[in-house]
Structures are given as structure tokens and as C-alpha cells.
Amino acid sequence: MLNDYKNTFSELISFPRNVVDTFLHGDHEKFMHPFKFLLIGAVLVLLLNTLLVNFSFEPDATAALPDNGEAGEQIEEIAGWIQVSNVRASTQFLPFGLIILFIPMLAVGGLIFLRNEVEGFFNHLVMNSYAVGVAMLSLLLMIPVWIFSGIPISDPLVNSTLPAVLVAGVMIWIYKQYLRPASVMEWIRMISAYATGYIFFIILNGFVAGVVGYMIFAIRRIAELSGS
Fold this sequence. Notes:
Largest sheet: none
Oligomer: single chain
Helix content: over 70%
Shape: elongated
């Protein structure tokens, strides 16, 4: 399995069309299945993130406090949990966010701008699954930044900007190797497809993280009331 993963990874870096088109044409044995390739990378990154990095921090939600009293304290607590959820979704658990939300959104962007280059939603899913499988390993470069930079994990530079730059750099490289853009307009369509998918992902990821943060607050509140 490790050899299959390494062979698939190295081929995607240089000649992604060999991997993607081989799978789309029905040869599922030559290279690793895209879902399996994604899952191995996600588990590896999540495991190393969890073992090596301390993602805990004290949320700063005082700006959300409208007044004094119990209601204001609850709003502050909700805002704090939403902040924690957003940071964790953008750092520790980002690999699974890329799988669940980013790949479909990239496929939507591809259908809008790359419909002449890649046919069908399923084909876009497969191409982007392999590309994200490679790109998520670049997040390992964030581990020494999170550990040694001294920048708080709550700082957008290290929990949003740098991970986004790393993933975008690898994704655009895979796109270039696969699509081989030969004109300025082809480059514009390629980058527009990625940018559209990324914007959709940021919106959805923030919404989901907000819902999760509120659910954590609600569950803890219910547990407190039950205990009292």
C-alpha cells in the first residue's frame, strides 16, 4: 500500500493526467483509488498535527459582548466557541474539511470555468480529489510554524493565510500539469476555477464551523443545567 501511495503521489506531481485519466478510463489497479489516496494523506496529517501541535488557546470574544449580565456572558461564550471551532477547522482538522467541502466546491468551480477542458462533475471530482490529496501534505510544513514561530494559533496569518497559500500553490501546480494552459485566457479560466471553489469553501467552512461551535456551547449548557 505504501508503494502504491508513493507511486501515485510522484506521478501526480509530474504527470497528473496519467493518474486521473487512467482511473477515469476504468483502470483502477495501476494507481491508488482517489478516495483511498485522500484518506491516507488526511489521516497522516491529522495524526501528526494532533501529536505534535497544541491547538488550544484562550478565545478573545469580548468584542461580541453587548452588555453586562447573564445574556452577555452567554453571547461571549458562544462567540468564543465559534472562534475555537473556526481555528480548529482551519488547522488541526483542515484535511477533512478539504475532503468534505473543498473538493466538491472545486468541482463546481471547474464546471463553471473548465467545462471545455474536463467533462462532467464526476471527472472534476476525481481530478480535484487527486490534486487535494497531494496538496494536503504541504500542510505538514505548517507544523514547525505552529510550534516554533511564537505566533498565537488564533492569528489569521498562521491559521488561515499560510495554509491557504501552501494548498493553493500545490493545487495550481497540479492544475497546470494536468491542463497544460497555452494561452493567457486558459490561465485565467484555470485560476478562476480554483478561486471560485476556494471562495465557496471558505463560506461553507465558516458556516459549518459556526454551527459546530454553537452546538458545543448548547451541549455544554444543557449538561450544566442537567447537573444543577
